[in-house]
From TrEMBL, chain A:
This is nitrile hydratase. It catalyses: an aliphatic primary amide = an aliphatic nitrile + H2O. GO terms for molecular function: nitrile hydratase activity; transition metal ion binding. The lineage of its organism: Bacteria, Pseudomonadati, Pseudomonadota, Alphaproteobacteria, Hyphomicrobiales. InterPro entries: CN_Hdrase_a/SCN_Hdrase_g_sf, CN_Hdrtase_a/SCN_Hdrlase_g, CN_Hdrtase_asu/SCN_Hdrlase_gsu, Nitrile_hydratase_asu. Belongs to the nitrile hydratase subunit alpha family. Residues 14-195 form the Nitrile hydratase alpha/Thiocyanate hydrolase gamma domain. It comes from the Bacteria. Pfam families: NHase_alpha (PF02979). It comes from Mesorhizobium sangaii. It is an enzyme of class 4 (lyase). Its EC number is 4.2.1.84.
Automatic annotation (TrEMBL), chain B:
Keywords: Lyase. GO terms for molecular function: nitrile hydratase activity; transition metal ion binding. Coiled coil: none annotated. This is Nitrile hydratase subunit beta. It comes from Mesorhizobium sangaii. Residues 121-218 form the Nitrile hydratase beta subunit domain.
Amino acid sequence: MSHDHDHDNELDPFAARVRALETILTRKGLIDPAAIDVIVDTYETRIGPRNGAKVVAKAWSDPAYADWLRRDATAAIESLSYTGRQGEHMQAVFNTEDTHNLVVCTLCSCYPWSVLGLPPVWYKAPPYRSRAVIDPRGVLEEFGLTLPTTKKIRVWDSTAELRYLVVPMRPDGTEGWSEERLADLVSRDAMIGTALARQPA
Amino acid sequence: MNGPQDLGGQMGFGPVAPEIDEPYFHAAWERRALGVTLCAGAMGAWNIDESRHARESLHPADYYASSYYEIWIKALEVLLKRHGFVSERDLEAGTAVDPAAVPKRVLKAENVPAVLATGGPCDRPVAQPARFKAGDPVRTKNFNPTGHTRLPRYARGKHGTVEAVRDGFVFPDSNAHGQGENPQWVYTVVFEGSEIWGEGADPTLSVSIDAWESYLEPA
């Protein structure tokens, strides 16, 4: 395969379509391309699942905060400065010995951007959206998570503007850990419900 | 509408394919697609419900063959044409040919942090008290509207229990069609797996939706 040409001129058809749209809107003065750069930078480097992990770690460490998070997640999360688009109305759901929580949006891709960042492809794709509500155990197996057959599973379909954050159970053997260290145990998937918190090494 | 977006309980899509250490974007154009979509939305010509309805109104074969950012862009083209910002001739030429409608605002780079941090809250005061309270048995409506709705097919005509009264929220079924916000109370309603899926349902499963008041009847 020859590489003596300029790859920038070899856009695949969809990349060309997006570029054309951006060009049209920019030339008409309807969008500011620099604003796109700021949006991308925000979601690529500033807002991600580390935000949610800090919320969970604080809830694990501070019973008063956990109680606040349970009653008014929007305010409790805002107190850590995580606000904004697709996090305007938050609800925290707590895993227990009895019940495991799993979040899905069967109708589109609703996801708590302010605490988890942009959703992964699988969250937005038909296999997860179709099966999470009818076969959650089968879905969880595909993430390598096998729950005890006695564990209840509660699936939250985000059909309105509430955005759900799963608070996983705190692993044993983490007594006295700092919030910073605890947050390292909390993955994005644990806050969607497709994983548990990591066990301490 | 009973469109391709209403996926709960459908079969045949195969296993979920989680990607280890997945990047936020899988191609450079996806970054631009995100930004163009948010910037165009910030013009204020349409609301989130109209944009969701534009996405679910793609032909089902097109919807299922498209990645999510592809769905976003295809729907965005529809919205931009509908509201007079972009013409078919612009899209054919790949550049600005025809004049555009005047937007309410243009999102400038310096305003992005504030706009993203504020978001678009959709809670609204509702004049009437909530019709239901936590613990009330309810039945969801059985209907098949041709317009936008957020009551999934799998949860229509089902008996459930109100678990929580949330807040007043903009009603998507009217707001998507320029028929006003008409805020209603929203409730979290929980169903037993067997009520939804019947024979063979996982006995440990319960599923909840967030339902606007007019989706519910006393049971």
